[in-house]
Amino acid sequence: MRLAGRYLFFIVSLFLFGEACGAPPQDRPNFSIQRARDLIKLDGTLDEESWKEAAVVSDLIQQFPYDTSRSKVRTEFRATYDDHFLYFSAVAYDNVKGGYVISSLRRDFRGPGLDGVSFILDPFQDVTNGFFFGLSPAGVQREGLISNGYLQSTDLDLSWDNKWYSHVKVYDGYYVAELAIPFHTIRFKAGTTRWNVKLYRQDSKENERAIWPRTPRFFEPGNLNYTGEMLWDNPLKHPGPNISIIPYIAGNSSRDFLKETPTNTNASIGGDAKIAITSSLNLDLTANPDFSQVEVDRQVTNLDRFEIFYPERRQFFLENADLFSSYGHPNARPFFSRRIGVVRDPNTGLNVQNKILFGARLSGNLNKYYRVGFLNMQTGAISESGIPSYNYTVATGQRRLGTNSNLRAIFVNRQEFTTDSGAFRVGGYNYNRIIGLDYNYSFNNNKWTGNLFYHKLFTPENPGRQFAHGYSFQYNTQKLNLNWYHQIIGANYIPAAGYVPRKGYKRISPSGQYLWYPRSSVVNSHGPGFDSYYIWDDTYGLTDHQYTPSYQVSFQNQALLSLLVQNTYTFLFFNFDPSNSPAVENAVKLPSFTAYTYTNASMNFQSDPKKYFTYSLGALYGQYYNGLRTNMQVSINYRLQPYGVFSLDANYNRIALPEPYKTADIYLIGPRVDFTLTRSVFFTTLVQYNSQYQNMSINSRFQWRFKPVSDLFIVYTDNYFYSFDQPMQNFTPKNRALVVKLTYWFNL
Question: What is the pLDDT of residue 387?
Fold first, then answer.
């Protein structure tokens, strides 16, 4: 309690400091939006009277390659609305003849060198959360959810899908984009008269990104601290009943060759429902969900001693995901939704899927100051493995403080639903519970940002030291960036529904970078950087540290070069094979309670992303524990515009250790073919070979989007044994599955 009191005092002090820094100026650029006088037809002509009378926003400012010049090309944005839709249009003129850079016809395109127009909405003006919509000149849609004020690229989640409508028409010397966003799709407070808005265009011909209003180039283009206002001519009304039902029917056939089980064929039915409790608060329900259509994770070579992180991709968990998943630090999350539906088999120690039976999720804004979230999910038991049924409950609340800081609280509970002797009880069986408090602060237009948190774990055993707390600070200007993070993780802090790859340590990690912006036609910016971390505990003292001086060069064509040197110290408190490869048989591990200091250097280069052929190259060489490590990696992409992308990712590591330790050659090779025959028919095949696990996998996915957010999926997966050392056993099957799934979105 004494420690929690200190943290509360620190939060109050930071809040008062933030208020002393002053709020951003209130004279922000704005435009008025008027109700449409006639029917808007999405045809790319803008011949309706409503478009002719709408306010025109055209004074865009470059954000790349510079951030003080007006855009080289003219772009005209307009907006209007009716009872059901918010409409935007953009007329994007060209100064240079030629085609556009379009990655493919697949939805949710992303990349620095692509052409398109984007629209960002912050209906609550909380400078924290928003909605993102974009269109390419080929009419390809992308939409996403913004969290944390869009301070970094990961704060935009393009996995979110929803219903909206658009049309793009290309003329000689310009293109016209129109979109209609149903008021049911976005969350807002009825009666509001002002929204925060940001509009921008990427133009590959001029190699520029231009934004309204001006946004400094060292911030993400969608940063919500730099927005204009859209002023409604009348207060917005509640959009009326908003209920969507999204059922699915699926059939699958699978076989596990390792367990020598017969082919298992079954069918399932289930679905989701989305119910708008208010215009800003949404209830999501799911019954017997099936996530087989979700794209597989790209494998990585893991040479670390601890678990790696994979992001959530399942639609049910995405809207307002930051309310649940962004507490603490990336290495100390009290709740990680990918834990739901996955448990560790006590017999094998491996992660296995346990089916989600049903769930409910309430999330959204009460007003511009308060956000709330509640989640409850129930998973099934696996009797043959002795895995019980689990219940997951999460409750969160957020209060905005100052301009765009916030104070948040979270409660997480995972517990067994039944035991052999009794049914569910509030007291719980084998429960694992967390109560946490976070303060996220952002002052002076994101010049100072950071986070402060304290989380406490409760379990039946209650052995003590079940806590995590930390603090972060970031200072951002155009030339100078400074960062400080620290975390203290208790020795018994093991959140069953969270992500904490390592327990019982203290860590600090200062870093910084300084950039020069020369007047050059080749180099956009360059400068040195420094990253570091120190880890220690109460038993062994200092166990890890790393110093990483670096130098980065960003080019005007958006290519990027970085050079790094890493000096690392590692103390092993358990036996460890540096190749971290189960495939290396009879490997002698480095003994516990030994320490190693090693240095290596690396280089990475990413080419101009606007070209049809793009690539990135990386290389590392130097000491590694008591041996040497050589690493080479390459990523090659060829764009058959706009119908597909052929890519190859390859990563090679040679871990050369002295006798009696094993020397290992580790390969990770992943060719991928992504065909987009139309804007509604997609075919993707990803092959991955990972020598760490002597596994070759194939994942092929066909998707037909026959109506908005209504799809037919056919997904085939296969896993084989493959090893250079045992060629006679290569392509021995491990497991195989075929899934056919049909989903349909009904609006009631």
Answer: 84
Across 147-151, 308-312, 635-639, 694-698, least confident range: 308-312
Minimum mean pLDDT range among 459-463, 508-512, 585-589:
585-589
pLDDT, residue 583, reads 62
Rounded Cα distance between 491 and 466, Å, is 7
d(CA 361, CA 189): 20
Tokens of 331: 């290495």
Task: State the pLDDT at residue 351.
Answer: 72
pLDDT band at 21 (very low <50, low <70, confident <90, very high): very low
Could you please report the per-residue DSSP string of 55-78?
A: --B---EEEES-SSSBPSS-EEEE
Task: Report phi then psi at 394, rounded to 5.
Answer: -135, 130
How many whole angstroms separate alpha carbon 301 and alpha carbon 690? 8
Instruction: Please name every residue paired with 174 in a beta bridge, in sequence order, or none if there are none.
Output: 93, 171
State the virtual CA torsion across 560, 561, 563, 564 in degrees, nearest 10: 20
How many other CB atoms sit within 10 Å of the CB of residue 520? 13
d(CA 480, CA 273): 47
- Cα 85 from Cα 75, distance rounded (Å): 23
Residue 494 corresponds to which tokens in the numbers above?
Answer: 């093991």
> For residue 684, what are the CA distances in angstroms to 292, 314, 676, 713?
14, 18, 9, 11
The DSSP secondary-structure symbol of 8 reads H
Q: Where are the beta strands (DSSP E) in 257-385?
A: 264-276, 281-287, 342-344, 351-353, 356-365, 370-379
265 Rama class: left (phi>0) / alpha (psi -120 to 50) / beta = beta
The tokens describing 450, both together, are: 């950071």
Q: Is 584 exposed, middle or buried (0-12, 13-18, 19+ CB in 10 A)?
A: buried
Please give the helix or strand (H or E) that residue 49 lies within, else none.
helix 49-53
Question: What is the rounded distance in angstroms from the CA atom of residue 435 to the CA atom of residue 455?
Answer: 6
Please say whether the beta carbons of 711 and 703 come within 8 A: yes
User: At 593, is the secondary structure helix, strand, or coil?
Assistant: coil
Structural domain boundaries in the chain: 36-232
Instruction: Name the residue among 724, 719, 720, 725 with its Cα closest to residue 737.
Output: 719
Q: Which residue has the higher pLDDT, 19 or 731?
A: 731
User: Cα–Cα distance between 299 and 689 in angstroms, integer?
Assistant: 9
Amino acid 428: pLDDT: 55
The rounded distance, in Å, linking the Cα atoms of 6 and 18 is: 18
Would you state the CATH architecture of domain 36-232?
Sandwich (2.60)
- The predicted pLDDT at position 25 comes to 45
Pairwise CA distance, residues 390 & 387, whole Å: 9
* Residues 343/354, Cβ–Cβ less than 8 Å: yes
- Two tokens, residue 288: 């017997």
Distance CA 352, CA 241 (A): 40
DSSP 693-739: TTEEEEEEEEEEEEETTEEEEEEEEEEEE--SS-GGGTTEEEEEEEE
User: Over 60: is that where the pLDDT of 423 sits?
Assistant: no
**Would you give the distance in Å from CA 740 to the centre of its chain?**
27
Residue 296, pLDDT score: 72
Do residues 491 and 480 touch, judged by C-beta distance below 8 A? no
The C-alpha atoms of residue 566 and residue 546 are separated, in whole angstroms, by 7
Q: What is the largest CA-CA distance in the chain?
A: 82
pTM above 0.85, yes or no: yes
Q: Where are the alpha helices (DSSP H) in 64-117?
A: none
